[in-house]
């Protein structure tokens, strides 16, 4: 078993039908500008937020535009919530059955706390229809001739004004037939792009460039077997800063080396701890530490590797929302206590910005999420993360996160939680509800570019926690295991983003 399979991310599926592979795309620039187009991209100033060498000696660079506060495009009114149902935990050879279609409630607070098995229906709750998809911003990866000196990543400030989200659902464009081309840019839908904000704020992302490692295991593995446009897809995605997942199989020395590289580059590294006992409750990313004691010893090792350097840490995707694999209150309390101890270990280092993962808006009610976060010592952390490895629209996640943060402050007046949202693959919102809609669903788009959000209030910023192009699990015959590069799915993701006017090709 590979190292990445031990620590890989997880989730989602649907029958894959889409546009032609990336290598068949029209060889022209397809970025669409102008506020009248539902998926248009705002203009932006050039600047580097990370770079890597592409084929032929050229350079791919991420160019961010201007962000906006999602609160200006969406109210924080509670949304109708489907009543949770229970479905059997899927195995690597069997997708989760379709949950029964529930009648939506008019009040989230009326939904009872989640007590079923975490890997069952909760994270795969059906999405509501008629969801609003906010207007995309612009982010481009531009191909330029290499400079005489090796170009280093840098920050940029954009001057373009942000545009508001349209009222009501956006109409997604159909994929266009194409004939050949090469990826030279990535744009992002959902919301305008984050830029550095003054370092005088307490936001740990403010004024910091997130680290783009370029040495991700799955991406390097893919580059060893791919050529042409498919390889360019990997290279282009690799230039965008993404979190590094670590588990019990990762040595302290390796984690320390990763932090060393980021620190030397003057960038902020981001780690995802994914080693909780009973990880993923036996689903596609099953594994983790053998006991709470061994887990906490491993977390202490991670803290040693960080060694006082500034690091952003997302703690245990899904663990808090799952509660426990048995569904009993006793086991849930034990898991929350383990998470609390992990938070205590990590936050003893003031340079570590800790975000406890809290699932997503259709998993726990705001009250239940807040109660569990307080029990897991979110008051000692920077805050919590939402939508990790999922596809729910950013505006809904932010509105939900604001409710959760307010409830946390009510339960613990000493707490001041902030949030980050995983926007790596949520540009099109969730897939239609159905069997396996959580695992490798077709028709997705790249999400908002990672970085800080100025004036975001409780929203610190956006991250790419899940790596676009990695499989969510072997949920269909032929699908790779969780965390392994999925060339067909990655090409589909990029091709649709091109068709939506979010990528530049030539």
UniProtKB/TrEMBL annotation:
GO terms for biological process: cellulose catabolic process. The active site is at residue 280. Belongs to the glycosyl hydrolase family 6. This is Glucanase. Residues 36-58, 92-106, 142-173 have a biased composition (Low complexity). PANTHER family: 1,4-BETA-D-GLUCAN CELLOBIOHYDROLASE C-RELATED (PTHR34876:SF4), PTHR34876. One of its GO terms (molecular function) is hydrolase activity, hydrolyzing O-glycosyl compounds. The keyword Glycoprotein does not apply. It comes from Lapillicoccus jejuensis. Keywords: Carbohydrate metabolism, Cellulose degradation, Disulfide bond, Glycosidase, Hydrolase, Polysaccharide degradation, Signal.
């Amino acid at each position: 078993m590979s190292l990445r399979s031990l620590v890989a991310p997880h989730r989602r599926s649907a029958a894959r039908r889409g546009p032609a592979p990336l290598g068949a795309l029209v060889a022209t620039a397809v970025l669409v500008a102008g506020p009248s187009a539902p998926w248009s991209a705002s203009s932006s100033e050039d600047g580097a937020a990370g770079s890597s060498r592409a084929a032929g000696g050229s350079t791919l660079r991420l160019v961010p535009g201007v962000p906006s506060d999602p609160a200006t495009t969406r109210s924080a009114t509670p949304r109708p919530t489907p009543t949770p149902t229970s479905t059997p935990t899927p195995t690597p050879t069997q997708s989760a059955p379709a949950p029964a279609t529930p009648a939506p409630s008019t009040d989230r607070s009326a939904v009872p706390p989640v007590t079923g098995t975490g890997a069952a229906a909760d994270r795969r709750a059906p999405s509501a229809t008629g969801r609003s998809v906010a207007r995309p911003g612009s982010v481009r990866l531009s191909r330029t001739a290499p400079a005489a000196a090796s170009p280093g990543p840098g920050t940029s400030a954009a001057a373009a004004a942000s545009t508001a989200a349209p009222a009501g659902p956006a109409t997604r464009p159909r994929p266009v037939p194409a004939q050949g081309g090469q990826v030279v840019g990535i744009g992002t839908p959902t919301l305008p792009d984050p830029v550095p904000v003054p370092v005088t704020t307490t936001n740990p992302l403010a004024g910091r460039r997130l680290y783009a490692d370029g040495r991700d295991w799955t991406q390097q593995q893919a580059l060893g077997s791919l050529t042409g446009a498919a390889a360019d897809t990997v290279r282009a995605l690799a230039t965008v800063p993404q979190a590094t997942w670590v588990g019990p199989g990762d040595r302290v020395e390796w984690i320390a080396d990763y932090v060393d590289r980021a620190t030397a580059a003057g960038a902020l590294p981001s780690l995802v701890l994914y080693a909780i006992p009973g990880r993923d409750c036996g689903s596609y990313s099953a594994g983790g530490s053998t006991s709470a004691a061994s887990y906490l010893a491993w977390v202490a090792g991670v803290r040693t590797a960080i060694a006082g350097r500034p690091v952003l840490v997302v703690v245990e995707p899904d663990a808090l929302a799952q509660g426990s694999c048995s569904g009993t209150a006793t086991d849930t309390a034990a898991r929350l206590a383990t998470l609390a101890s992990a938070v205590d270990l990590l936050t003893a280092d003031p340079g570590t910005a800790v975000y406890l993962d809290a699932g997503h808006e259709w998993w726990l009610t705001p009250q239940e999420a807040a109660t569990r976060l307080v029990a897991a010592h979110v008051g000692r952390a920077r805050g919590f993360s939402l939508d990790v490895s999922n596809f729910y629209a950013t505006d809904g996640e932010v509105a939900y996160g604001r409710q959760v943060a307010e409830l946390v402050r009510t339960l613990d007046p000493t707490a001041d939680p902030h949030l980050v949202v995983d926007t790596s693959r949520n540009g099109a919102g969730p897939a239609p509800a159905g069997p396996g809609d959580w695992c490798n669903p077709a028709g997705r788009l790249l999400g908002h570019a990672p970085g800080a959000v100025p004036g975001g209030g409780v929203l610190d910023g956006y991250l790419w926690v899940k790596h676009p192009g990695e499989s969510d699990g072997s949920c269909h015959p032929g699908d790779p295991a969780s965390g392994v590069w999925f060339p067909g799915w990655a090409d589909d993701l990029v091709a649709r983003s091109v068709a939506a006017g979010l990528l530049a090709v030539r």
